[in-house]
Design brief:
This protein has 353 residues and is mainly alpha-helical. It contains 15 helices and no strands. The protein has helices spanning 5-52, 57-88, 96-105, 113-119, 121-130, 132-151, 162-171, 177-191, 195-221, 233-253, 261-284, 287-290, 294-311, 319-339, 341-352. The longest helix is centred in the first third of the chain and has 48 residues, at 5-52.
């Protein structure tokens, strides 16, 4: 239970701040956002654990401390501000002159994104939602590449959904199979949109492919023959981008509950802390070794989330459905893993003989 102490502490502080900002309505909004973030990102905890189990203790601490700060403050608060700043051509933060004007005249005269988000949250939300196509195309494509590269592996010999996973494993004999499948998905979905939106969708999706390919190759560029996700800085960047892709849906969907960016940051931050706690539990308890299909379930959940994000420009699927689908796949994988444990022990005993 000690893995969750910091999460419960952050929850108490966060809900107290939410009450100060918005009263009971603010507490309710932050609490629901925390639940949404935790349910949408539990598969992220499993994937993080599958990478962190290969790291030494120094890099684990770096990711769990600095990576947490980046995840909470960077991806859940600063990144949306940067998106709006690029779209609207505004400064993300108020400058020194705006602060001086406030101190001298007692009035706020600034045209930065943070001020817009505080003083006119409806306009801020509208501008952020206008980038929905690019954000979901980039994040969905990045996650789709993560999904393909886990299952499309000719050397993979353990399967959960055996018929499908064996087929994907055989595709690993074909060079660049994951890249070709992703490009095919992007081209088909882009062709179903009007030309302007289709171009935006395809461009953002291609950037998702480029960024994944670069990050996944950083380990080799740094002289490490192992996969990039198992090295130091390259693995750190990989997990941060993976977390970013998971957080896109939560950040955009948060405005359905509140337009207050501070309540959004509090709620999503609490959820991110619980994801961190689940990651710690999975790593230090060796849960992935005990539950042999849990990792498979998490990557199927990633595939489902990627599909939902890529289809978001064509149809709206409620975040609760996405989170429920991910939770169902992971629970199903966990239950199946528990049921096959006796058989696994028998197999090992036979091998020992």
């Amino acid at each position: 239970m000690h893995y969750f102490r910091s999460s419960f502490l952050v929850t108490l502080i966060g809900l107290a701040l939410a009450a100060w900002i918005g009263g009971w309505v603010g507490v309710w909004a932050a609490f629901n956002l925390a639940l949404l973030e935790t349910s949408l990102s539990f598969d992220n905890a499993v994937v993080n654990a599958s990478v962190l189990k290969h790291w030494d203790e120094k890099w684990r601490r770096r990711f769990l401390v600095w990576g947490m700060l980046i995840a909470v403050f960077g991806m859940r608060m600063l990144f949306p501000l940067l998106i709006v700043a690029v779209i609207a051509g505004m400064a993300p933060m108020p400058g020194p002159m705006a602060l001086w004007h406030w101190l001298a005249n007692g009035s706020w005269a600034s045209h930065d994104v943070l001020s817009l988000a505080i003083l006119n949250p409806a306009s801020y939300s509208h501008i952020l939602q206008s980038a929905h196509t690019e954000v979901t195309a980039f994040g969905g494509t990045f996650l789709l590449m993560v999904f393909w590269n886990f299952f499309i592996d000719a050397n993979k010999d353990e399967h959960w959904f055996a018929p499908l996973e064996q087929l994907l494993s055989r595709l690993g004999r074909m060079q660049m199979a994951a890249l070709l499948l992703t490009l095919l998905v992007l081209l088909v979905l882009a062709s179903l949109l009007d030309p302007d939106e289709g171009y935006r969708f395809l461009t953002a999706g291609l950037w998702g492919v480029v960024v994944y390919t670069v990050v996944n190759s950083l380990g080799s560029l740094m002289g490490d023959d192992q996969a990039a996700a198992k090295t130091g800085w390259s693995g750190f960047i990989y997990l941060e981008l993976l977390d970013a892709s998971f957080s896109f849906d939560g950040v955009l969907g948060a405005f359905a509950l509140t337009s207050n960016i501070f309540l959004i940051a509090i709620g999503l931050g609490i959820g991110a802390m619980f994801v961190r706690s689940f990651t710690l539990l999975l790593v230090y308890k060796g849960t992935l070794s005990t539950f042999r299909y849990l990792e498979h379930g998490a990557f199927w959940a990633i595939g489902a989330l990627a599909t939902v994000m890529l289809l978001a420009t064509h149809m709206h699927i409620h975040e609760a459905v996405t989170g429920g689908m991910a939770a169902f796949l992971i629970v199903l994988a966990g239950v199946h893993s528990w049921l096959v444990r006796p058989q696994k022990k028998l197999d090992r005993q036979r091998e020992d003989r």
